[in-house]
């Protein structure tokens, strides 16, 4: 059975979504998928956000408008939430 084929645009959005979902979970904003309970790990969240920001930097100028907005919005929202959680 062959693996499903995805186009590059779908894969980019999927990658951004994966890092974002991890960061939201690490910020304690969504439940940990294994325990079903929110668990905060700010160090891990910072790494996930840094990885998204690095991806944003490395892909700058190579994204379409939707992809650029997707990653920009994700980084901005996660950084704001990280700052809020860090100040608690």
Describe this structure in words.
- With 88 residues, the chain is mainly alpha-helical.
- The protein has one domain.
- The protein contains three helices and two strands, in the order H-E-E-H-H.
- A two-stranded antiparallel sheet has the order 1-2.
- A hairpin with a 6-residue loop joins strand 1 and strand 2.
- Helix 1 runs antiparallel to helix 2 and helix 2 packs antiparallel against helix 3.
- It is flat, with a radius of gyration of 14 Å.
- The N and C termini lie far apart (50 Å).
- The mean pLDDT is 92.
- How many beta-strand elements? 2
Please state how the strands of the largest beta sheet are arranged side by side: 1-2
* Shape field: flat
**Radius of gyration over all CA atoms, rounded:** 14 Å
Number of helices: 3
The helix content, as a percent range, equals: 55-70%
Percent of residues in beta strands: 5-15%
How would a textbook summarize the main sheet? Answer: 2 strands, antiparallel
Structural class: mainly alpha
pLDDT below 50 for ≥5 consecutive residues: which ranges?
none
Q: Give the overall average pLDDT.
A: 92
What is the first-to-last residue Cα distance? 50 Å
User: What is the N-to-C succession of helices and strands?
Assistant: HEEHH
Task: Give a brief rundown of this model.
The protein has three helices and two strands.
Which secondary structure elements does this structure contain, and how are they paired or packed?
Elements: H1 8-26, E1 27-31, E2 38-40, H2 42-59, H3 65-86
Antiparallel strand pairs: 1-2
Helix pairs in contact: 1-2, 1-3, 2-3
């Amino acid at each position: 059975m062959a693996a499903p084929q995805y186009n590059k645009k779908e894969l980019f959005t999927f990658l951004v979504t994966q890092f974002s979902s991890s960061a939201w979970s690490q910020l304690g904003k969504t439940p940990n998928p294994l325990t079903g309970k929110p668990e905060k790990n700010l160090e891990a969240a910072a790494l996930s956000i840094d990885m998204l920001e690095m991806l944003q930097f490395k892909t700058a100028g190579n994204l379409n408008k939707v992809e650029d907005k997707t990653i920009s919005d994700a980084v901005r929202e996660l950084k704001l939430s990280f700052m809020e959680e860090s100040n608690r």
